[in-house]
Amino acid sequence: MTGVTSQSRTGRVRVERSGDYFVVRGEMETTVTLACDRCLENYSQPVHAQIYAVLVSADLLREAGAESVELTSQDLDITSYEGEEFDLEPIVQEQIILSLPLRHVCGEECLGICPKCGANRNRTPCQCSDNGPESPFSVLKKLKI
After folding, report:
1. What is the tens place of the pLDDT at every residue in 108-122?
2. How far apart are CA 27 and CA 50, in angstroms?
3. Domain annotation covers residue 124
4. Global pTM?
C-alpha cells in the first residue's frame, strides 16, 4: 500500500458469480503502521474494512463500450479484470485505505512538534517561548458574547 504498511490480515471474502460478473463481499481486519499527523512518529492503527466489489471481464466491457453509453453511479463501482483470473489484492488494499481515519493521530494526548524549533514535545519539553508576534485575531479573545 502506498504510504501505509500493513501487517498480517485476517478476514473472510466471498466471491459469487452472477451472470457475466462476479460479486466480491467480505470483511478484513488488520493493523497498519501510520505516521502521526502531529508528531510524525510511527504508530499502529487497527483497521476493520468492509469489502464490496463487482468484477466484470475487460473483454465484455470492450464489447459493450463499442456504443456510447452514459455511466450511472453504480457503473463507477465496477472493476474489470483481464484473462481467466482476477487479483483481489488491489481491492482489499483500496478498502483498507478507505477505512482509515481521516486524521492519523497516535493518541489524543499527542503534543506534536514545536512549530518554532521542531522538537517533538512528547519526548522533551520545548524551550521556546509562547511570546511570538501578536496575532491580528488576538483582539477576538477580549470579545465577550
Report:
1. 999 999 988 889 999
2. 5
3. no
4. 0.67
